[in-house]
Write a structure and sequence with these properties.
six-stranded mixed β-sheet; three-stranded antiparallel β-sheet; alpha/beta; binds fe (ii) ion
């Protein structure tokens, strides 16, 4: 899973679905926090995952938010304040910061390579559907991993594949949410979508499972109205952050 963005309602539904499938190894590709109203609760829940990678929002909260626009920066500052809240004891605040501080930029497990954004710029670069036409960019990105790369960051679930020197992007829905990994040595880059702020015009939480080299995209309804209300109640979180949860964009 990736891009939870402090959406507690979505994360609970995703984790319940994972548990119900009997899956015990969970990887998170970053942006556990940022934009949403429950950064503390989402970090707490993410303690049970095998690893959480560093996303651009964790990077912004930990280090700097220069490349964020004014509204996004305000959300970053608010998130940082939540993690330093006086209403909680110091130890529990430190534990949250430790979790963020331990996040790695990339991970490899067997044939799988995991990163938040892209292999060449782990936390920042967006690999968007239209980039499939940018052969130079795609060549560089595909040179950055060996076999199968999983990313998040754009919040748009789907698969980039390569045939010869041509690249192709398919939305998860075009693949019927199922993608058998190539066995002929072709590389693929898979975007797992966003658990907490989908942007493919489908407002349901998204995550993928990998089982016997078949990747499946799962979509789950959750109580986004509650998340919206929480966002609207926080002055530092812009209203469009609530609205986009309803619209899935
Ligand atoms: Fe994100």
């Amino acid at each position: 899973m990736s891009d939870i963005h402090a959406n507690y309602e979505a994360l609970q539904v995703v984790l319940a679905d994972i548990e119900q499938r009997g899956i015990d190894t969970i990887y998170c590709l970053g942006d556990v926090i940022g934009y949403g109203p429950n950064p503390r609760e989402c970090i707490e829940l993410c303690r049970k995952v095998r690893f959480s990678l560093l996303g651009n929002h964790e990077e912004a909260v930990l280090f700097h938010a220069e490349d964020f626009n004014a509204k996004a920066r305000r959300a970053v500052d608010w998130t940082r304040d939540q993690l330093n809240s006086d209403e909680h004891d110091k130890e529990s605040n430190y534990a949250l910061w430790d979790f963020l501080g331990e996040m790695k930029r990339k991970k490899t497990k067997g044939r799988y390579f995991f990163v938040h954004g892209s292999p060449r710029q782990p936390t920042r670069e967006y690999v968007l559907p239209k980039d499939a036409d940018d052969t130079g960019k795609m060549n560089d990105i595909f040179d950055g991993f060996e076999d199968v790369c999983f990313v998040g960051h754009t919040h748009i679930p789907g698969v980039f594949s390569r045939k010869g020197d041509q690249y192709d992007f398919r939305y998860a829905i075009q693949l019927d949410n199922e993608y058998p990994l190539p066995t002929d040595g072709d590389k693929v880059l898979i975007n797992v979508g966003s658990a907490g702020q989908p942007r493919d015009n489908d407002n349901r939480a998204c995550y993928v499972t990998i089982e016997e080299d078949v990747v499946r995209f799962h979509r789950l309804e959750y109580d986004y109205k509650t998340t919206m209300k929480k966002i609207q109640a926080v002055e530092d979180l812009a209203d469009y952050l609530a609205q986009r949860l309803e619209e899935g964009r």
